[in-house]
Q: What sequence folds into this?
């Protein structure tokens, strides 16, 4: 009876539906067969666009800041967090109704403020044409979920457990005593008191410190292995299967549009975007993400060097544009110019160095950061950076101009106009200024890449529906999209995805997408 009564409320294409984090509400409604068909306005997404560096986008705080009104905290209804906290169904209806109506009223009032502010700051087009349509795509993706091979995760977890035990024994062989490897205090005492290693950052045992300590003692390398294996086991192999939905037997991650100031999507419960791929054992995890059945494939489409291509567009650097326009390997070309060696004579390590430099410079890295990345001296790092800017003077000019303009107008922006404010540039703390400079250089690049893949996702999702395909977009991992595809649709989807991804935004140089497929994510990537 309730469904029949509320369904017509949401099934009206001419109605504007306003809410705070309405993706969640729409997912719940869909679970009960109710689709929201009208125009949408999400106050949380609007608040993030207007101020991407806020600490919180909870409506309680937005209400205080924009409306000067303090809302009833939910704890007043259900009590403080803990085992004695009540369920909403235990609260008196008159109390719930006031709380719910207040939520509704505040959301509408925030809409009235934010809709004007978006226009004022020229962010309305991004909001209505990119962020809201992206939210609709994310609803489809979250609802669909992804299939995982539980037995594979269990077997790999067991293997990882044995590796952790083996590494622990190696560590204890150096110390001749057992201790809690996960305790920073105990580890610090072992490293700096018992073994007498020279502290790098006071008595820190962080990853970058252990990387430095590898030069002093082999225990540091084993500690890094221990942490790597432990993270893979605890964060991914053991945790991901616990998120299987009992109703669908699939994992349904939640995508967030309001976390990164660049506009990049993130995912939680579980986080499927940060599964490491640098080591062979971490790449194995992807074998556990499988197609829905034997008649389907996992299909992956990945932008090739997208941030470098966007940098080429922004900087108008002729050498970079020449490389990408003529399909020349940009890392080999960079290595050739830095090391003054013919491209045909570039070795693996030289190309690897050039690759690190290409991406590090784009993130605003200086000599210190580069020396750490490449394990070289500061003097060598400075020489490489100088050679890099001699090769690509347009990039240096772009970086200088970006910072100069940010100081003048107070913000940087993406190709489509998303803004990030640069308040840190005026700080009296030099470390804050340097961090802000790095963020200002990177944001237009990474933010444009985020907009690019969002537009591609919107267009692909629309075309899949228009073509009545059974293929489903199931995951976004920054520059990569993942699909669950019936085998008889693989050719059609491959063509569709490649076309939409490579044409989502027009740059001065062509965009390139690499595609592959298999029974699992590992085979497809």
A:
């Amino acid at each position: 009876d309730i469904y029949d009564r509320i369904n017509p409320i949401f099934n009206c294409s001419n109605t504007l539906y306003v809410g705070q984090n309405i993706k969640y509400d729409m997912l719940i409604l869909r679970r009960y067969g109710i689709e929201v068909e009208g125009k949408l306005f999400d106050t949380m997404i609007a608040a993030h666009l207007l101020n991407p560096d806020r600490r919180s986008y909870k409506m309680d705080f937005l209400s205080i800041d924009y409306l000067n009104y303090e809302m009833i905290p939910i704890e007043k209804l259900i009590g403080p967090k803990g085992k004695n906290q009540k369920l909403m169904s235990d609260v008196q209806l008159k109390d719930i109704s006031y709380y719910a109506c207040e939520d509704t009223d505040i959301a509408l009032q925030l809409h009235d403020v934010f809709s004007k502010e978006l226009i004022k700051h020229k962010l309305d087009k991004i909001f209505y044409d990119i962020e809201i349509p992206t939210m609709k795509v994310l609803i489809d993706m979250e609802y669909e979920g992804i299939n995982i091979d539980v037995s594979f995760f269990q077997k790999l977890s067991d293997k990882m457990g044995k590796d952790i035990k083996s590494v622990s024994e190696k560590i204890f062989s150096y110390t001749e005593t057992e201790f809690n490897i996960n305790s920073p205090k105990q580890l610090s005492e072992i490293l700096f008191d018992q073994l007498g290693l020279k502290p790098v950052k006071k008595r820190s045992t962080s990853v970058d410190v252990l990387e430095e300590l590898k030069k002093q003692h082999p225990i540091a390398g084993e500690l890094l292995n221990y942490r790597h294996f432990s993270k893979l086991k605890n964060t991914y192999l053991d945790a991901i299967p616990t998120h299987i939905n009992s109703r669908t037997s699939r994992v349904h991650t939640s995508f967030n549009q309001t976390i990164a100031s660049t506009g990049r999507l993130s995912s939680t419960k579980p986080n499927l975007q940060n599964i490491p791929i640098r080591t062979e054992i971490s790449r194995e995890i992807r074998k556990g993400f499988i197609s829905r059945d034997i008649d389907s494939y996992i299909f992956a489409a990945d932008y090739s060097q997208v941030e470098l291509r966007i940098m080429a567009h922004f900087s108008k650097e002729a050498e970079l544009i020449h490389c990408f326009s003529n399909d020349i390997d940009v890392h080999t070309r960079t290595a050739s110019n830095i090391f003054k060696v013919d491209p045909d004579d570039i070795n693996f390590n030289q190309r690897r160095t050039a690759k690190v430099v290409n991406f590090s410079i784009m993130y605003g890295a200086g000599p210190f950061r580069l020396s750490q990345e490449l394990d070289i001296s500061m003097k060598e790092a400075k020489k490489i950076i100088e050679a890099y800017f001699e090769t690509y003077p347009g990039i240096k000019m772009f970086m200088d101009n970006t910072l100069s303009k940010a100081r003048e107008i107070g913000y940087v922006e993406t190709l489509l106009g998303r803004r990030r404010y640069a308040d840190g540039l005026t700080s009296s703390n030099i470390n804050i200024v340097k961090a802000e400079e790095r963020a200002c250089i990177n944001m237009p690049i990474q933010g444009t890449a985020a907009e690019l893949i969002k537009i591609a996702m919107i267009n692909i999702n629309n075309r899949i529906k228009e073509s009545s395909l059974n293929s489903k977009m199931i995951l976004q991992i920054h520059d990569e999209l993942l699909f669950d595809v019936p085998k008889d649709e693989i050719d059609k989807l491959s063509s569709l995805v490649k076309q939409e991804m490579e044409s989502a935004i027009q740059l001065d140089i062509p965009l390139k997408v690499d595609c592959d497929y298999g029974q699992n994510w590992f085979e497809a990537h």
